[in-house]
From TrEMBL:
Domain Phosphotyrosine protein phosphatase I: 3-141
Name of the protein in question: protein-tyrosine-phosphatase
Lineage of the organism: Bacteria, Pseudomonadati, Pseudomonadota, Alphaproteobacteria, Rhodobacterales
SMART domains to which the protein is assigned, alphabetical: LMWPc
Pfam families given in the database record: LMWPc
Enzyme Commission code: 3.1.3.48
Amino acid sequence: MTDRILCVCLGNICRSPTAEGVLRARLPDHHIDSAGTGDWHIGKPPYGPAQAAALTRGYDLSGLRARQVSRADFHRFDLILAMDSENHADLARMAPEGARAALAMYLDPLGGGDVPDPYFTRDFEGALDLIEQAAHLWAARLRGASG
Ligand code: 4NP
């Protein structure tokens, strides 16, 4: 069973909360969460432009609050999805012995690679496009896996 999924980016205010909102919409029976490898934005809602872009496609991210990923998350979740290769490397470094969670790239269903960080690129629509495409494929996989 792969019911508990954690999306992880750097700040937890752009890419991973967007992925959380999009995956929740497609997998309403799964437990979906997000976190950041960094600690700068703990307790903050998703970045305004990321929220606005998501809302135009029907995803309300306003209730989400940033938190930092912890070693305990590797025991609480079945699958941890890194939004880019730096996030993946940071997660692989902190993974405890005997971790329950599998670690993968969020874009693996699209052949891998990074979701470019819109906080820096300012391309919030492009990030959402990628996040939605991969979410569609994750949902097909995971519904099959747990159904
Ligand atoms: P995210 O974007 O990792 O997609 O949430 C970022 C937002 C803020 C910062 C870095 C990445 N920052 O350094 O403040």
